[in-house]
Amino acid sequence: MTVVTMTVNGKPASADVEARTLLVHYVRDALGLTGTHVGCDTSQCGACVVHVNGRAVKACTMLAGQAEGANVTTIEGLATNGELHPVQKAFREHHGLQCGFCTPGMIMTAVDLIKRKPDLDEQTVRAELEGNLCRCTGYHNIVKAILAASQEMR
To answer: Along the 154 residues of the chain, how does pLDDT read in single tens digits?
Structure first.
């Protein structure tokens, strides 16, 4: 067992885990933050996206030990003082979710995308979402929500 320590959603977090523990399992099982979903364990679906030191990462592709000392943000850490993040608001307002399973990963990916490329168009959003799967929609409302959030955040 190995003690892994990092900052998660602005708070110190530490847990004793096996060396082979994935970051997604550390967040969910050791810290009880279940908003980050396990969809495929093969980095195909994107339901597990979190931010590590400000960058979107599929948490099923990273060992918890690799995030030692890092700043990690999960979907639970986006809201500030009970106020939803603009991307979360846009997903709600533009019906960018169906069953909700992919939503945390989509939102975390979108926040990173808007930060990297603030002047978005539909083609760019669709290309950037290729690593995130939604089995409920044709992505139309997800794209609309991300574009609206991008405008709001400018």
So the answer is: 999 999 999 999 999 999 999 999 999 999 999 999 999 878 999 999 999 999 999 999 999 999 999 999 999 999 999 999 999 999 999 999 989 999 999 999 999 999 999 999 999 999 999 999 999 987 999 999 999 999 999 9
Nearest-angstrom CA–CA distance, 154 and 144? 16
Topology adopted by domain 2-77: Ubiquitin-like (UB roll) (3.10.20)
Q: Say how far apart CA 41 and CA 104 lie, in whole Å.
A: 16
Please state whether the predicted TM-score (pTM) of the whole model is above 0.70. yes
The CATH classification number of 86-153 equals: 1.10.150.120
